[in-house]
């Protein structure tokens, strides 16, 4: 899995992916599972300052994470998370709410499964992955491991 | 709270000027967006005579929320500035599609309890009024350029909304184009 901050849009990817005029990328659940998603960005919600100093703990840290495919038409998938048990490096990241995307899953007859069913299937797919690793790494890089300026 | 909508010239009591000042306070001063400003007011090239504004006011007449509606048959923010948010689709140009932008619902008189772009008590009603206004102008779909907060707001409503494409990252924060389908609303 790679981390990137820009999307390199390449010419048409797998032939089964179609960008519809309504903005949805339509594909079956099986086809979706075959597409690797890369971590684009994760961040903390505003007014949730930061991190943890040694010995301190917070249980109300939340944020978002964004993932994309690398072939055109680009699939975008994001969701919110909250941190639980954030002390002594034992933080757990839990997905909250429904995912947000440009995906409409379809059945084998190319009929829409609908927004609600699509969201449920995307949730299940997300929960099978180890997305928390990438999120934790980026949160640490963005918010914790900042260079310290020392006055000379 | 009351909500008024219309072009700048039909808004009463110098309300458009108050909206421009409100937008400055929210988008420039609070959110730090790099926008055109003059004398404490914010506007851009899409604030035109045909632009439609939706304005929420509290009981004292202070602006507590605003939104901007533009027809896609004339230049609009997404089409002119952020077409890459559409994932390769040509920006819409249709009387059925309007753009919703500059959406904010912060009650600046209650800053002790609110921050950012939204007060939840105002946001939902302002969104519903904005959609109703768009429908009254013939819109069947809305497109927005939104930070994640607006997208979250949309996803919590009963409206059929989804992303139009992957986000752009600006100053470390994602912005998205989102579709709002209005079929059946106001029918």
Q: How would you describe this protein?
A:
The complex is a heterodimer of chains A (152) and B (187). Chain A is built from 3 helices and 7 strands; from the N terminus they run E-E-H-E-E-E-E-E-H-H. Chain A has 152 residues and is an alpha+beta fold. Chain A has a single domain (18-144), classed as Roll (Nuclear Transport Factor 2, Chain: A), CATH 3.10.450. In chain A, strand 4 and strand 5 (76-84) form a beta hairpin. Chain A starts with 17 loop residues before the first strand and ends in an 8-residue tail after the last helix. Chain B is α+β, with helices and mostly antiparallel strands. Chain B has one domain: 3-Layer(aba) Sandwich (Aminopeptidase). Chain B is 25% helix and 30% strand. Chain B is built from 4 helices and 10 strands. Chain B has helices at residues 15-30, 77-81, 120-136, 148-155; strands at 2-7, 37-38, 41-42, 52-57, 63-71, 97-104, 141-147, 160-163, 168-170, 173-181. In chain B, the strands form 2 sheets. In chain B, strands 1, 4, 5, 6, 7, 8, 9 and 10 form an 8-stranded mixed sheet that branches. A two-stranded antiparallel sheet of chain B has the order 2-3. The longest helix of chain B is centred in the last third of the chain and has 17 residues, at 120-136. Chain B starts with a strand and ends in a 6-residue tail after the last strand. The A-B interface holds A 5-7, 9, 19, 21-25, 40-41, 43, 46-47, 64, 66, 68, 72-76, 78, 80, 97-98, 100-102, 104, 115, 142 and B 86-89, 115-116, 148, 151-152, 155, 160, 162-167, 169, 172-174, 176, 179, 181.
């Amino acid at each position: 899995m790679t981390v990137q901050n820009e999307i390199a849009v390449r010419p048409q990817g797998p032939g089964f992916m179609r960008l519809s005029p309504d903005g949805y990328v339509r594909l079956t659940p099986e086809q979706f599972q075959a597409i690797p998603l890369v971590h684009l960005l994760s961040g903390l919600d505003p007014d949730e300052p930061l991190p943890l100093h040694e010995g301190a703990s917070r249980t109300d840290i939340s944020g978002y994470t964004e993932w994309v495919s690398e072939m055109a038409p680009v699939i975008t998938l994001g969701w919110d998370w909250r941190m639980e048990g954030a002390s002594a490096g034992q933080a757990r990241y839990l997905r909250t709410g429904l995912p947000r995307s440009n995906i409409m899953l379809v059945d084998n007859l190319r009929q829409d499964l609908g927004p609600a069913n699509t969201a449920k299937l995307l949730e299940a797919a997300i929960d099978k992955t180890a997305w928390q690793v990438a999120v934790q790494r980026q949160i640490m890089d963005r918010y914790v491991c900042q260079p310290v300026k020392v006055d000379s | 709270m009351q909500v008024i909508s219309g072009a700048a010239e039909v808004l009463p009591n110098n309300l458009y000027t108050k909206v421009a000042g409100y937008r400055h306070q929210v988008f420039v001063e609070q959110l730090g967006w790099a926008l055109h400003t003059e004398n404490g007011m914010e506007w851009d090239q899409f604030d035109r005579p045909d632009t439609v504004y939706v304005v929420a006011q509290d009981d004292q007449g202070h602006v507590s929320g605003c939104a901007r509606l533009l027809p896609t048959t004339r230049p609009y923010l997404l089409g002119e500035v952020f077409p890459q948010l559409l994932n390769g689709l040509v920006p819409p140009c249709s009387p059925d599609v309007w753009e919703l932008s500059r959406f904010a619902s912060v009650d600046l008189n209650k800053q002790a309890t609110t921050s950012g772009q939204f007060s939840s008590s105002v946001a939902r009603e302002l969104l519903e009024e904005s959609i109703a206004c768009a429908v009254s102008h013939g819109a069947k779909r809305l497109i927005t350029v939104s930070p994640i907060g607006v997208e979250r707001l949309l996803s919590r409503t009963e409206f059929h909304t989804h992303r139009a494409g992957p986000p752009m990252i600006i100053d470390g924060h994602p912005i998205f184009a989102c579709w709002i389908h209005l079929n059946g609303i106001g029918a």
